[in-house]
Amino acid sequence: MSTVAHQAEILSQALPYIQRFRGQTFVVKFGGSAMQRRENVDSVIRNVLLLHLVGIRPVLLHGGGPEIDSMLGRLGIEKRQLDGLRVTDDATMEVVEMVLAGRANKALVGAISRAGGKAVGLSGRDGGLMRAIPIRPELGRVGEVAEVHPELLETVSAGGFIPVICSVAAGPDDEPMNVNADTAASAVAVALKASKLILMTDTDGVLADKSDAASRISSLSPAEAETMIGNGRADRGMIPKLQAAVDAVRQGVDRVHLINAGTPNALLLEVFTHAGIGTMVSE
Description:
Layout: H1 3-12, H2 15-21, E1 25-30, H3 38-53, E2 57-62, H4 65-75, E3 81-82, E4 85-86, H5 90-114, E5 119-123, E6 130-134, E7 142-148, H6 151-158, E8 162-166, E9 168-170, E10 176-179, H7 181-191, E11 196-201, E12 206-207, E13 216-217, E14 219-220, H8 222-230, H9 239-250, E15 255-260, H10 266-272, E16 279-281
Parallel strand pairs: 1-2, 1-11, 2-8, 5-8, 7-10, 11-15, 14-16
Antiparallel strand pairs: 3-4, 6-7, 9-10, 12-13, 15-16
Helix pairs in contact: 4-5, 7-9, 8-9
C-alpha cells in the first residue's frame, strides 16, 4: 500500500479523534538516531502536516546527538561524557548550538516547507522561550529547564505556522545551555497545556523485557513508569523519556506516547487508532 493510501485509510477511521482533538496542542519530540534516516524524517513531517491540516496545533521539538558527535569529530574536539550526559565546555557548546539551532533545525523547517507546510525554526533562546539552570559544575553548560515562556509559540501557532524548536536554552548568564530534548519537550508541553506529548524513539515503545522486541507495554501509569526506572527494567536510553513522561502527566498533560519513528505513519497510527503502536503513559 502506498504512503498516501495508508494515510487515507487511517484518516477514514479517525473522524471521532479529529473532532475530539481539533484545536488542541500536540508536542512532538523528534531527534537523535531517528533523524538520521531520510524516510523517518519524511514520514514524521507528513504526519505532522496532516495533524495541522485537520485543526490540531503541532509543536515539533528536536535534538540531534549523532550530528553533534559527527561535527565534534570533524573539528577534532573530544567527546566526553559523565554519568551518561555530554560534558559541554564552551567549545562543545558552540558546536551544539551550531548544529542544533543551525543545520538540524533548518533541515526540519526546510522539510516542512518542501512538503507544503509553513514552519518557523526557533531556539530555546529566542524570545526568552526556555531558561535553564546548570545541573552540575563538572558538566559545564548542561542544564535542566527551569522556565518556559510559551507566548512566542502561541503567536507562531496562531499565525498558522508550525514551531520547530531545538533543545538549546538560555542560561543564567543568557549564554546557551545544552538541555535534554525529552525533558525540554515535557516542559514545553506543560507550559502550553498540551493534551499530548509524543516522544519519538527508535524502539516500539517501552519493553517489558529489554531483550525481547515483542514485549511492548501498551500503557503505563506514572507510578509504574517510576518503578521501571527504579528497578532497572528501563534501559539508559529510555530512562529520560519515561521520566519526561511522568513529569508531563503529573503536571497536567493528558497523555504521553512513546512510539517508534521508524514505523510508517507512526504518529497517525498512535493518535487516530484505538490500539495504537507504542506505549501510552497516563493516570
